């Protein structure tokens, strides 16, 4: 499904994105290695086992990136001019290997662009929930979108 143009969104509109995604050990290992994040809690099973969590924690920047990735097909594919910012990123519950994450999005702010009349600004609140219904991550993503031509 292609993303929506600025003028197709409504304030308060909500979407639950599909598919959901089950996080694997490979996801966590490769993402941590690619980003040079060598935090033992992400990579060392024994160090993680000795932590208060008792198991490997999935790299939270992977979780953040997954939220964006899971959301874009329904929100911004083909209509995005630019991501303008990411704000209020919080991870209230850790993500573990084997968790299945679902992304939910809500339009929390909209405004016309003053400097670009053919575009508008939308602020999405993205939330990832795990299979237990817990919020693993929430954030605000501000985007500049094209308006529908015609």
From TrEMBL:
Residue ranges annotated for the MaoC-like domain, each copy included: 11-117
SUPFAM superfamilies: Thioesterase/thiol ester dehydrase-isomerase
Pfam families linked to this entry: MaoC_dehydratas
Top-level lineage group: Bacteria
CDD domains: FkbR2
Gene3D superfamilies (UniProt xref): Hotdog Thioesterase (3.10.129.10)
Descriptive protein name: Acyl dehydratase
Organism listed in the record: Novosphingobium chloroacetimidivorans
